[in-house]
Design brief:
The two termini are 32 Å apart. The protein has one domain (25-141): Hotdog Thioesterase (Thiol Ester Dehydrase, Chain A). It has one helix at residues 47-65, and strands at 25-31, 70-79, 88-98, 102-115, 124-141. Helix content is 13%, strand content 42%. The mean pLDDT is 91. The protein has one helix and five strands, in the order E-H-E-E-E-E. It is elongated. It is mostly beta strands. Residues 22-143 form the HotDog ACOT-type domain.
Length: 143
Protein backbone atom coordinates (compact mmCIF):
# COMPACT_ATOMS: atom_id res chain seq x y z
CA UNK A 1 0.00 0.00 0.00
CA UNK A 2 1.35 3.41 -0.93
CA UNK A 3 1.62 6.05 1.72
CA UNK A 4 -0.46 9.08 0.62
CA UNK A 5 2.37 11.35 1.80
CA UNK A 6 4.91 9.74 -0.58
CA UNK A 7 2.60 9.14 -3.56
CA UNK A 8 3.48 11.35 -6.53
CA UNK A 9 1.08 14.19 -7.08
CA UNK A 10 -1.33 13.65 -9.91
CA UNK A 11 -2.04 16.57 -12.12
CA UNK A 12 -5.63 17.03 -13.20
CA UNK A 13 -5.98 16.36 -16.90
CA UNK A 14 -6.06 19.61 -18.77
CA UNK A 15 -7.52 19.79 -22.23
CA UNK A 16 -7.33 22.89 -24.31
CA UNK A 17 -10.67 24.60 -24.76
CA UNK A 18 -12.43 23.72 -27.97
CA UNK A 19 -12.29 26.09 -30.89
CA UNK A 20 -15.43 24.51 -32.37
CA UNK A 21 -18.04 27.04 -33.42
CA UNK A 22 -21.09 26.99 -35.63
CA UNK A 23 -20.05 28.00 -39.13
CA UNK A 24 -16.47 26.71 -38.85
CA UNK A 25 -15.60 25.04 -42.16
CA UNK A 26 -12.85 22.85 -43.62
CA UNK A 27 -12.51 22.08 -47.34
CA UNK A 28 -10.41 19.53 -49.23
CA UNK A 29 -9.90 19.10 -52.96
CA UNK A 30 -8.80 15.92 -54.67
CA UNK A 31 -8.57 14.26 -58.03
CA UNK A 32 -10.60 11.06 -58.43
CA UNK A 33 -8.22 8.52 -60.02
CA UNK A 34 -9.37 6.05 -62.65
CA UNK A 35 -8.35 3.22 -60.33
CA UNK A 36 -11.40 4.11 -58.21
CA UNK A 37 -13.91 3.66 -61.04
CA UNK A 38 -16.28 0.91 -60.00
CA UNK A 39 -19.08 0.92 -62.56
CA UNK A 40 -19.67 1.48 -66.29
CA UNK A 41 -18.95 4.98 -67.54
CA UNK A 42 -16.12 5.33 -64.99
CA UNK A 43 -18.67 5.86 -62.22
CA UNK A 44 -17.30 5.88 -58.66
CA UNK A 45 -19.37 4.28 -55.89
CA UNK A 46 -21.09 6.37 -53.22
CA UNK A 47 -18.72 5.07 -50.56
CA UNK A 48 -16.02 7.25 -52.15
CA UNK A 49 -17.87 10.39 -51.03
CA UNK A 50 -18.45 8.97 -47.54
CA UNK A 51 -14.74 8.20 -47.17
CA UNK A 52 -13.96 11.77 -48.25
CA UNK A 53 -16.40 13.03 -45.59
CA UNK A 54 -14.44 11.03 -43.00
CA UNK A 55 -11.18 12.66 -44.08
CA UNK A 56 -12.51 16.22 -43.93
CA UNK A 57 -14.22 15.49 -40.58
CA UNK A 58 -10.90 14.28 -39.18
CA UNK A 59 -9.20 17.55 -40.09
CA UNK A 60 -12.13 19.54 -38.68
CA UNK A 61 -11.79 17.72 -35.33
CA UNK A 62 -8.03 18.29 -35.28
CA UNK A 63 -8.49 22.01 -35.98
CA UNK A 64 -11.22 22.47 -33.37
CA UNK A 65 -10.20 20.04 -30.62
CA UNK A 66 -6.67 18.81 -31.24
CA UNK A 67 -7.90 15.24 -31.72
CA UNK A 68 -8.89 13.18 -34.75
CA UNK A 69 -12.29 12.45 -33.19
CA UNK A 70 -14.60 9.60 -34.13
CA UNK A 71 -17.57 9.45 -36.46
CA UNK A 72 -20.74 8.58 -34.54
CA UNK A 73 -23.41 8.68 -37.25
CA UNK A 74 -24.60 9.87 -40.63
CA UNK A 75 -28.08 11.06 -41.41
CA UNK A 76 -29.80 12.28 -44.56
CA UNK A 77 -27.17 11.08 -47.04
CA UNK A 78 -28.19 12.24 -50.53
CA UNK A 79 -26.51 11.11 -53.75
CA UNK A 80 -27.55 13.96 -56.05
CA UNK A 81 -25.24 13.57 -59.04
CA UNK A 82 -22.52 11.22 -60.22
CA UNK A 83 -18.87 11.27 -59.26
CA UNK A 84 -16.64 9.69 -61.85
CA UNK A 85 -13.00 8.95 -62.44
CA UNK A 86 -11.21 12.02 -63.76
CA UNK A 87 -13.28 14.42 -61.65
CA UNK A 88 -11.78 16.96 -59.29
CA UNK A 89 -14.00 17.14 -56.23
CA UNK A 90 -14.21 19.60 -53.39
CA UNK A 91 -15.32 18.18 -50.05
CA UNK A 92 -16.48 20.48 -47.27
CA UNK A 93 -17.51 20.04 -43.67
CA UNK A 94 -19.26 22.81 -41.74
CA UNK A 95 -20.21 22.69 -38.06
CA UNK A 96 -23.91 23.33 -37.51
CA UNK A 97 -24.15 22.43 -33.80
CA UNK A 98 -21.60 22.20 -30.99
CA UNK A 99 -22.21 19.97 -27.99
CA UNK A 100 -19.91 19.25 -25.06
CA UNK A 101 -18.20 16.40 -26.94
CA UNK A 102 -20.21 16.19 -30.15
CA UNK A 103 -20.15 18.26 -33.31
CA UNK A 104 -22.99 18.07 -35.81
CA UNK A 105 -21.61 18.67 -39.28
CA UNK A 106 -23.04 19.30 -42.75
CA UNK A 107 -21.04 17.70 -45.56
CA UNK A 108 -20.99 18.36 -49.28
CA UNK A 109 -19.11 16.96 -52.27
CA UNK A 110 -19.00 19.24 -55.31
CA UNK A 111 -17.53 18.28 -58.69
CA UNK A 112 -15.42 21.29 -59.73
CA UNK A 113 -13.76 19.81 -62.84
CA UNK A 114 -14.47 16.86 -65.10
CA UNK A 115 -12.63 15.02 -67.85
CA UNK A 116 -13.71 16.05 -71.36
CA UNK A 117 -13.08 13.02 -73.58
CA UNK A 118 -14.59 14.74 -76.65
CA UNK A 119 -11.53 17.02 -76.72
CA UNK A 120 -9.01 14.25 -76.01
CA UNK A 121 -7.96 11.62 -73.50
CA UNK A 122 -6.34 14.05 -71.08
CA UNK A 123 -8.64 17.05 -71.65
CA UNK A 124 -10.70 18.40 -68.77
CA UNK A 125 -12.90 21.40 -68.06
CA UNK A 126 -13.82 23.43 -65.02
CA UNK A 127 -17.50 23.28 -64.10
CA UNK A 128 -19.06 26.67 -63.47
CA UNK A 129 -21.00 26.33 -61.34
CA UNK A 130 -19.71 23.18 -59.63
CA UNK A 131 -22.12 20.23 -59.49
CA UNK A 132 -23.29 19.17 -56.01
CA UNK A 133 -22.83 15.40 -56.02
CA UNK A 134 -23.34 14.24 -52.42
CA UNK A 135 -24.65 15.82 -49.22
CA UNK A 136 -25.02 14.48 -45.70
CA UNK A 137 -25.26 15.43 -42.07
CA UNK A 138 -23.08 13.65 -39.56
CA UNK A 139 -22.10 13.65 -35.91
CA UNK A 140 -18.52 13.38 -34.74
CA UNK A 141 -17.36 13.08 -31.14
CA UNK A 142 -14.13 14.15 -29.50
CA UNK A 143 -12.76 12.86 -26.19
Amino acid sequence: MTDPETRPETQPETRPATRAAVGMRVTHRRYVPYSHAHYAGNLVDGAYSLAAFGDVATELCIVTDGDEGLFASYSDVQFRSRVQAGDVIEISAEIVRVGRRSREVDFEVRVVARGDEERGGSAARLLDPPVVATTARGVVVVP
